[in-house]
Structure formats: C-alpha cells, structure tokens
Amino acid sequence: MTAELLVALAPIALLIMLGAWLKHRHVLADSFWAPAERLGYYVLLPSLFFHGLATARLDGLPVSGMIATLVLSTAGVALLLVVSRRCLGSDGAAFTSVFQGGVRFNNYVGVSAAAGLFGAQGIALAAVANAAIVPTVNILCVLVFARYGAAGKMPAGKVMKQLALNPLVLACFGGIAVQLSGLGLPVVIEPVLKALGQASLPLGLLCVGAALELGSVRRWVRPIATASGVKFLVMPLATVVACHLFGLSGKAAIAALLFQSLPTASSSYIMARQLGGDAPLMAGIIACQTLLAAVALPVSVIVLSPWL
Questions:
Q1: Biggest alpha carbon–alpha carbon distance for the chain
Q2: Residue ranges making up the domain that contains 177
Q3: CB atoms within 10 A of CB 301
Q4: Rounded to whole angstroms, how far apart are CA atoms 52 and 20?
Q5: Residue 95, pLDDT score
C-alpha cells in the first residue's frame, strides 16, 4: 500500500517543482500564469468533475453509507475550523487558505492511489468519494470565502449567487444529474470533456509551483502546520468515527479513509486566486502538504485501517 501511495504522490511534487522552475527561469512570460489559472478554474476543472461523476460505475457499492460518512466527517471538521478560527492564529484571507488546506483533497492522488490499491473497484470507489466530497467542499469553501475572503463579508443574496454560479459546484451537480438519469454523455462530447479534465491536473500543479514564494515560508509555519494537522490527523480520525456511525467497513471504508487523508488540491490555489483568498499562502500549504503526504498519508491509512 505504501508503494502505491508514494508512486501517486511523486508526479504531483515533480510538476509543482517544474512550475517553480519555469517561473524562476522565465521560460514562459509572467502574463501566461493568470490566464492559465482562469482557464483551469472555469473550464478544465469543471470538465474533470463533470466527466468523472457522469461516467462513474457504481454498481454494487455501498454508495449511501460512503456518502454519509464522507459528508459528515467533512462538515464536522469544517465546523471545527470555523469555530476555532480565532484560536488558530489566522484570520481573513489567510483563514480561507487554512480552511481549504484542512478540508479539500487532491483528486489525482486519490484516484491514482485507489486504483493502485483496489484496481477497477478502486476507481468506482473513487467516483463515489468525488460525488460526496467535491460538492460538499466547494459549497463550504464558497461560504467561507464569502465570509472571510479579501472582499469582506458578502450579503446573503451575493453568497447564493456565488454558489449558484460557481463553475465547480455546477459541474458537480451536473455530473451527478447525468449519472442519476442513466442517459450517459453523448459520444462526441464525452472524449472532449475527458481530454479537458485530464489537462486540468498538470496545468493546475504548474500554476501552484509558479506561485510559490519560498522566501516567505517562515511566516507560513503556523498556518501550514495548522492546516496539515487538521488534514492528516483530525480529518482521518473524524472519518473513522463516521465509518462506525454509519456501519461502513471493508474496502469502502478504507477508500473513505484514503480520500480524507489526502493532501489538499491544486484547485485550492486557483479558487484562492479567483475568490479573494491568500493565494501565496495557499500555494505554500499545497506544496508542503504534498511533500508531507509522502509520510503522513501512508501512516494515516495503515495505522487507522485496523480500526475500521
């Protein structure tokens, strides 16, 4: 299990390093990165989520128990972060980055690791995890940005508009709707969405690397440690508790634990850029968690799996 997880993490770290090198060496013009981030947020990532949820094979899986486990653990940890905000030493835009670092997850690592552990069934379990967590975390993150983002507190109407128009939330619910309808995607459209979604992963990680400001890493120690502690310790423990509450066991429970122990997503940086978060801090959290996950992810899954 450890080997499969490390293999899934290695390309993530390498792509972040490549992005940092490209920016540092000015291989690409500085004006390239902002449009690339917008392309990822508004087109590529929504395509990834929509396609993944619309085409997932869910036959014979404990879908309801797995979704309940993942939604409850995510919402519980999110509430804990908000309630503890003043004690965490982060406020305003910085808190939005700590929040995302604590609740979001890297789809690429999750799908790759689940497939490595469980084969074709792992891909199906990964699809269920995405169906549960992606809409949940995106709604929670939009709400947190609306309250604590750089733009200041938004009125209720504007918050609802943000949720209704958020491309990631729309893509998630659209993909779920197609899945439930049983109609599938048109033959011509499916490969287009698949190709766009695949492009989101490397581009997003390159943008993360380009945004790194390693000279400021000292002032990020506390928020990075907070976000990582929540992600690699609190969230996995909450997931184990939720598994027992909903009677989830076996491969489905291990897959749930795996997804809730993942480092935060590269899309966190793009969302921070677009919605008024602390993007440099977010990039630091992503990079550090990706490196920490080489140890923390296998430890969380191996140590806590016997309790499921």
A1: 53
A2: 2-307
A3: 22
A4: 29
A5: 93
